[in-house]
User: Fold this.
Amino acid sequence: MGTLPILRAATDISATSGEYFGPTKMNEMRGYPEEVKSSAKSYDEELAAKLWKVSEKLTQIIYNFK
Assistant:
């Protein structure tokens, strides 16, 4: 059951970029994958920037997207 959201996202021909699939039953912990909204933290751009910087530091790989 744990792989079903990933499989759906990868194989559903109607899925579009940015959609998030996961279970919808029992506090989004059980059930077959349906389109759901990701956590509020996933929309926090400041937090994402911090995570990116930490990831670059730990991996010693710097990406320049200019």
